[in-house]
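Re-run with default settings, no changes from the original entry. Doing this only to confirm the output is reproducible before filing.
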Amino acid sequence: MSVELNAPADLPADFRRAVAGLADVELRSEVIISELPAPQRLAPHAIAMHAAVMSGGDELADGRLVVLHDPKGQDVWEGTTRCVAYVQASVDLDIASDPMLPGVGWAWLTEALDVAGAQHCAAGGTVTRTTSERFGALSEQPAAAEVEIRASWSPIGDDLASHLVAFGELLCAAAGLPPMPPGVVAIPANRRKRPSTKVSRGRS
C-alpha cells in the first residue's frame, strides 16, 4: 500500500527535504502504514502516520509516528525536529507479569534506532503494561494484557528515513516478530504479493 504524505506548501526547506526522504522507505511486508492528520498545536509544522503489524489478517501491534518541526528549536528537544512514537501490542499474561518487560520494551526502541543507523539525541519515554480482568456479561472472555510504549527522540541531521525504519522495527518487536537478519532487505514492492508499504510524498 502506497502512502502519500501531503506536505503543506509552507514547510521550511530543510524539513521538506527530510519529509521527501521518506518517499523511498521500504518497510517490512507485515507493516501497513497510512497518513494521519498532523497535530496542530505541538509544533509549527508536523506530519503523522499510523502503522499496524498484520499477520494472517490479525493485527499484532498498532502505533503512530508523529514528526514535529520547529525552526526555532525547543530546549527539551536539543534540536529543531522531534519524533514522537506510540506503540501498543497484546502480550501473554506471563510476559506482562515479568518485571523485566519495561526495560525490554525500551531496549526494543534503542536497538531499533541503532540498527537502522538513526542518529538521535534526547531520547525519553515510558513503557506501560496493563492487564484486564473481565466480569459480568464479559466474564467468559479471557483476561488480556498489553504493553504500551510512548517515546520521543530528536533526529540528528536531515535523514528521517532511518527513523521511520526504526519505528517499523519497534512495532515488529512489540508484535513478537523476530528481527530482520543483518544484511537482509525488504523485497521490492513489485515482487510482493501483499500491498507495498512504500511511503511516498504527495504533491503540494
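The longest strand covers residues 58-74. Confidence is low (pLDDT under 50) at residues 183-204.
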